[in-house]
Design a protein that fits this description.
The complex is a heterodimer of chains A (182) and B (644).
Chain A: H1 9-24, H2 34-65, E1 71-79, E2 85-93, E3 96-102, H3 105-112, E4 117-123, E5 127-138, E6 144-155, E7 160-169, E8 174-181
Parallel strand pairs in A: 1-7
Antiparallel strand pairs in A: 1-4, 2-3, 2-5, 5-6, 7-8
Chain B: E1 9-10, H1 15-28, H2 32-36, H3 45-54, H4 59-71, H5 79-92, H6 96-107, H7 114-130, H8 134-142, H9 152-166, H10 170-178, H11 188-201, H12 205-216, H13 224-243, H14 247-255, H15 264-277, H16 281-292, H17 299-314, H18 318-347, H19 350-357, E2 373-374, H20 378-387, H21 389-432, H22 435-443, H23 445-465, H24 474-492, H25 497-558, H26 563-622, H27 631-643
Classes of the chains: A alpha+beta (182), B mainly alpha (644).
């Protein structure tokens, strides 16, 4: 589905600098005091507890705002993205605009590296619904490019997850846009 | 720019120091581990969602999302990969213990792929090395049974060499890096650097120096960090050559260091010594004089303040030497005073207060740039402390705690919002719920359905009998009733010609009415059928709505019931954490203060020694006529101090 590219060049540089610096030092590495170690352990435990409560709050928020019986979430993925540079996406559900999203360079990079964006989370009652996504950006040869894709879905009592996919079509040298139900 | 009332602190950092600090700090965090653990493909939305935030350096959100997805068993085939990322993120937050726990749990898993297993051993080695346990680090590395993926193998080799250097097995360290062939990676200069270090420590000084030479003579474009490393390399070569009495070559090395560099002061000092060792005290003096005009809080500058009069004394200008010693002693004493004031200020809590004024804005665990220093010259003294690893780690902990504190405050708002949502839902339910049964009773759907069934039967009867009068219009029915009455009346009348005419006319009219009703019957039947169908559908809708309302009466309660306890518990936990965070923040601030004081006191001791040396030298100059001045001893002392 989503392929990756090479490691960022800075990564190794940064990592090795650390050890190179340590390697040159003639004095032994500084060992933290017992008090600092103890404090550090307590801080690590605190962080762990904070993360645990944070997760519980996330879950609670989702349960309260988007109960599973009505929840619908729309994700967006970009496979490579050489034929399409994403600028924005408009999402309509049942002919009503539910989100307009403008992408930063950093977000596009994150998508190109395999990240999947949770574009929209909302509630829909059970039954038939129509999803329309409008993709705006630059196509091959830097031309303005605007394409829409549509999908009819049936919402049941289970959460509904949809993925908007932008995939490079190597044969056509064009981007393909699709919506997939999960 | 923030300032505490006690001491003029400001949020700035000199550019050179900043580079050094940032270089060192980034290196010592575990952040690099994160980006290395990328999957070959993403086949899960929740995992991809976490990666989306991870790649944007939103580590806290990424970690929360990963943990939530793991908790919901929603990671599918990415579970193990997600665990590695989770552990890497723990590393980047300084949560080494938990990272190690996860890595060890993963290693205990039977079905973990060899590539992941090797990568985990690599991270464990890094962890052990960071904890200053080189033997454990080496043992972890020895578990790696094949080349690492994602270009990590070059890093593994450098780490291995570093570990061996720390274990003082220099020859083995050199062996690890000798056959380095990753010429196209950015790691090459650092491999060369470490190789040179290993060779020199293995008493292969010439080979080591050659490696340093090769590194500094590299022609390709260099980053700022690499240029700083080359400067450091040249500085180290210079002093190594000075120790070998190869003064001319040392001088050339020092001259290659950039004028604007973190090492430029030490370079000027070194050039001076290179000239002094060649008995060219005039040249040495010129360099040391330039250096002595720089910031006197710098150790190299303080050294130069002593070297300038020393050079004058070597040139035979004893009077000038004495004058410079006295003048520079005044400068050093001023520094001594500044340093004492700084120590007093920190002792009275100014550093802790300045720390409290920092307003961290990003999520914890990010790579902090250290931007807290006192205003003015004192900043240089603290800069040395802040560039040190223990202080950086402590400050990072402190800032993380501040962010946790902010996060907890935000959670209080969020928890209150949850409460509001629940209260609104409960109020809505309480106001509407009692009305629903009343409305249902009022509607009396069962009676309506009974009526419908009767209508249906009636229709069926009409359909069977084709009794058109049943569907007559009101005017037809009225006409029919009149005709019936007339018929009764006509029956009572005697049989006359006139009455016969009337009866005939009645008969025709009745026939016409029947004909009209029967003609219209099919259309009327169709209309009634249509109406009945619509009514049936409406009754079904009402039935469903009634059922839904009855169902909602039960389910709506689930939207707000049972959360109170959970929210109260979370609020309680958040409150407890807030108190704990506050306590730990205070303790960490005090620990940072202690670290700063320890370093400043060491600098104070060094400064006091300089002053004593200067005073002794002045006394020697005054007594020169009686006791010959032993310049060699002084030079040795200065060089020793410099090397330290």
């Amino acid at each position: 589905m989503t392929r990756i590219k090479g490691l960022p060049s800075w990564l190794g540089l940064v990592w090795v600098l650390c050890f190179s610096t340590l390697g040159w030092a003639t004095e032994p590495a500084i060992t933290p005091s017992h008090e600092q170690k103890n404090l550090d352990t307590q801080i690590q435990d605190l962080k762990k507890e904070v993360l645990k409560i944070n997760r519980e709050l996330f879950s609670l928020e989702e349960e309260l705002l988007f109960p599973s019986s009505t929840q619908v979430a729309v994700f967006l993925s970009l496979d490579i993205g050489e034929f399409f540079k994403l600028d924005s996406v408009q999402l309509k559900i049942n002919d009503k605009v539910v989100t307009n999203y403008l992408y930063t360079e950093r977000e596009v990079q994150a998508l190109a590296r395999g990240g999947v964006q949770r574009l929209y989370t909302g509630n829909l009652k059970t039954g038939e619904h129509e999803i329309v996504a409008l993709f705006i950006g630059k196509g091959p040869e830097e031309r303005d490019y605007k394409r829409a894709t549509k999908l009819s879905i049936t919402k049941t009592l289970k959460p509904k997850f949809l993925e908007l996919q932008i995939v490079d079509n190597e044969n056509a040298q064009q981007p393909d846009f699709a919506v997939q139900e999960w | 720019m923030k300032q505490s009332p006690q001491y003029g602190w400001q949020l700035t950092l000199s550019s050179h120091l900043k580079k050094l600090v940032v270089i060192g700090f980034i290196c010592l965090t575990g952040g690099s581990a994160i980006a290395e653990t990328r999957p070959s493909s993403v086949k899960n939305l929740h995992y991809g969602d976490a990666l989306f935030h991870l790649y944007q350096q939103d580590h806290f959100i990424a970690l929360s999302k990963l943990q939530q997805a793991a908790h919901n068993n929603a990671l599918g085939e990415h579970s193990q990969e997600a665990k590695i990322i989770e552990a890497s993120l723990y590393l980047s937050y300084g949560m080494h213990r938990y990272a190690q726990e996860i890595f060890q749990q993963l290693l205990a898993t039977q079905d973990i792929p060899a590539s992941q297993r090797n990568r985990i051993w690599f991270y464990l080695a890094k962890l052990a090395f960071k904890k200053n346990h080189p033997s454990d680090a080496e043992l972890a590395l020895l578990n790696i049974d094949r080349e690492l993926d994602h270009g990590l193998d070059a890093e593994r080799r450098i780490l291995h060499a570093q570990i061996l250097i720390q274990l003082e097995r220099y020859q083995e360290a050199a062996e690890v890096l000798k056959h380095w062939n990753a010429s196209d990676t950015d790691l090459t200069p650092y491999a060369q650097y470490n190789l040179a270090v290993a060779l020199i420590r293995d008493n292969q000084a010439d080979a080591g120096l050659n490696k340093f030479e090769a590194l500094s003579n590299t022609k390709r474009p260099k980053s700022e960090e690499e240029l700083a490393l080359i400067d450091k390399t040249n500085l180290n070569i210079g002093y190594t050559l000075l120790r070998q009495d190869d003064n001319l070559r040392a001088q050339k090395r020092f001259e290659q260091i950039r004028q604007i560099s973190p090492y430029s002061n030490e370079a000027l000092l070194g050039i001076g010594w290179a000239h002094a060792r060649q008995q060219d005290y005039r040249q040495a003096l010129s360099y040391w004089q330039i250096l002595s005009q720089a910031d006197p809080s710098q150790p190299a500058v303080q050294e130069a303040l002593l070297n300038v009069p020393y050079a004058y004394s070597k040139l035979g200008a004893s009077q000038t030497a004495v004058e410079h010693y006295e003048q520079n002693l005044a400068t050093l004493r001023l520094q001594q005073q500044t340093l004492s004031q700084l120590i007093d200020s920190i002792n009275s809590g100014s550093l802790v207060e300045a720390l409290q004024h920092i307003a961290p804005t990003t999520t914890f665990g990010d790579q902090w740039q250290l931007e807290i220093l006192p205003r003015g010259q004192e900043s240089q003294y603290l800069g040395h402390v802040m560039a040190g690893h223990p202080f950086r780690e402590g400050l990072r902990n402190y800032l993380d705690l501040r962010i946790i504190s902010n996060t907890l405050a935000k959670w209080q708002t969020t928890i209150n919002a949850f409460n509001d949502i629940l209260t609104t839902r409960r109020l809505g339910y309480d106001s509407k719920a009692p009305l629903i049964p009343v409305q249902i009773d009022k509607l009396n759907l069962k009676d309506k359905q009974q009526q419908f069934r009767q209508l249906q039967q009636h229709y069926n009867a009409i359909d069977t009998t084709k009794f058109s009068l049943a569907l007559a219009s009101p005017s037809e029915r009225k006409a029919w009733e009149r005709l019936q009455k007339l018929e009764t009346t006509l029956k009572r009348l005697p049989d006359t010609k006139r009455n016969a005419k009337l009866k005939h006319k009645h008969h025709i009219l009745k026939g016409l009415l029947v004909w009209q009703m029967e003609t219209e019957l099919n259309i009327r039947m169709w209309t009634v059928r249509k109406g009945l169908n619509k009514l049936e559908s409406l009754l079904a809708d009402v039935g469903r709505s009634q059922q839904s309302a009855t169902h909602a009466l039960v389910t709506a309660q689930q939207g707000f019931s049972g959360y109170d306890e959970k929210i109260t518990m979370l609020r309680q936990q958040a409150d407890n954490l807030a108190v704990k965070t506050m306590t730990l923040s205070e303790q960490q601030a005090v620990a940072l203060q202690a670290l700063a004081l320890k370093s400043l006191q060491a600098q104070q001791t060094a400064l006091n020694e300089h002053i004593t040396r200067a005073q002794f030298a002045v006394a020697q100059l005054y007594d020169q006529a009686i006791i010959p001045f032993n310049v060699d001893d002084d030079e040795q002392a200065a060089m020793k101090s410099l090397e330290q």
